[in-house]
Write a structure and sequence with these properties.
By secondary structure, the chain is α+β, with helices and mostly antiparallel strands. It is built from 14 helices and 21 strands.
Amino acid sequence: MKPQKVLLFLIITLCSLGIASKLLPLLHIQIGDTKIEALPDFTEQFDTKIDSSAYFAEIKAQEAKMSLQEKKEAILKKPHRSTQDTLILMQVEAMESPAKFYFANDDHSAMDKFFAALEQAQADNTTFRMIHYGDSQIEMDRISSFIREQLQKQYGGSGMGLLPALEVTPKYTVAVQSQGSWNRRLTFGGNENRAKHNRYGPMAYFCKKESSEASVTITARENTSFKNRHFTQCRLLIGAIDQALTVQCEYAGKTISNTINPSSTEQLIVFKTDSAQGKITLKFSGANADVLGIALDGPNGVSVDNIPMRGCSGTVFRRINAETLKRSYQLLGVKALILQFGGNALPGMTKPSSAEAYGKKFYEEIRYLKSIDPNLFVFVIGPADMSIRQNGQWVTHPQLENVRNALRKATLDNGGVFWDMYEAMGGNGSMVEWVNNKPALGSPDYIHFSQRGADKIAQIFYQSLLKEQDMYQLRKKIQ
């Protein structure tokens, strides 16, 4: 039989069966208690709809189980990529980078909130203040100045941030010259420098006026950025005083003054200095006040303060009175903190248990700062590679990675964001390479950065921040 005839026969047969099953749906055969359809309606098989939503839900469930690396491999095979695909590729790149940020449960929402707050401040023409606390690695305004300059370029703002009335370690961005009698009281260093009270304020130390008259002249250095020199307001944070204090502000040939009355709480004196041109002199008379800080900023945009704390391991913040710190942060508009510590915990440390104990103390410090303001964004930068001499060779301190791990755990357990400076440098033995680099990126003590090295690590940090910002922008598009 010809194939055409066979095909015609099959079509006629199937059609006949279909018609019969529709015309005879009630025909049954009874066998005992069982009723069997003699001719079931087989066309029902063709009427059943496929549940496409369940199918695609299953596909999504399978994708969710895939690792980012597996997703990356699948995306690279696609002829076209979606915004979601681009985001995944960027996440994989960030994960593979030694300069990546670490988040609790890999939840980037903390970073998203940080960028959203920066954008909101820019849109509302308000301020966003970040305080960079750290050990001697940030002395002379190193690292902080680069972050300040870059954020101000993008989000606006001006000035060099919060300064003391008496500067012990000079900054390469600004000079502070003090006249009269001033005395520093610190939360860190030897006990002989402690105050009789704990109202230290936002710098973790204050400068006490101890003569009937005293003055401070602040000058932005010529080699710094335009925004650094062109601050437009000066704000003085003054501690509790028992008699009136008068401050006279001189700038660009102008003189203005302000007097505040006795108070048991902190007060803010504000001077508008639109034409200060990078130089200002403040003359104090009256009460022997605790000057908690002098902020030179703009009326809006970003401010980044550089607070170096030589010899400090970052476990001193609980020495600051909570109400004083809370009020100070509110008056100055502090929204974010960078805590850069760890190196000063290492000398004399020989056991992993010591690193673990240090991490627990640091956890309590972050917890305390978050209790001051639960909305604070907290970034922790771990220690740089630090070398010691062993058998005639410079090697990484044996406990450095344990300290780094302890700081990371303390940060993530508090919902903060951690950046591993040690790995960003290159990990084990990297300080030796930085010292031997031409020109040198590390100091001869194999602990500190050179100025070039500080600039380089600041650039690496900020590049990591920009990558997170790019991912934040993509997440906004997808939502």
